[in-house]
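Q&A FORM
Asked by: J.P.
Topic: structure of Thermonuclease family protein

PROVIDED:
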Amino acid sequence: MSLTTTILLIYAACLVGTIASPARSNGDRPPDEPGTRHLPAALLVPALALLAGLQAPPARAADEAAPRTVSGPATVIDGATLQIGGRRLRLHGIDAPDLDQTCSDGHERDYSCGRAAAKALAARIGGESVTCELRAAANGRAGVLCRLGEDDLAAWMVANGYAVADRSVSADYTDQDRRAWGRRLGLWAGVFELPSERRRLRGASAGL
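REPLIED BY: S.T.
REPLY: Here is the structure written out as tokens.
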């Protein structure tokens, strides 16, 4: 039995004993004499304080806000998603074509831009260990910042035109996005549909 439970039981026993004992009449006791009618209140105050202490949530330590990290060899799911140690991790602040997405290159030839993005990310990682830390987004969607050594993998994907900055989540990679567009790299060399817009249209048509 915990110490707090023991104390509460003692208070309860005192209250029962006080209520059950006969009280003296007002005429038997001076007006300022502490009597049994004051005892229950005196006991209830600390008891209620104990209960309040039990119900109050513990203070959150400041270090709990520190980002969680995961490291290890990575498996590429698509151009914006990795799997490390059985955990599927979405790269923060970017979006890449789905594996089944097709785009057009600079010569108006169709190619699998989704598979090209995944292949580029896998080649960049090779067999090296990747370190990722959890990031919270403004819209509530969590993602991860993944690094290969000192290099930000999301920044690399956007800078080379294999992915685009996801402005609905973050503005972190808008500069890389503009430079890739200006140099007509990757997706920007031809014609493509924004991955998020493509998913939205497919979802809308599926609901018809």
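FOLLOW-UP: Residues 18-67 have pLDDT under 50 and may be disordered.
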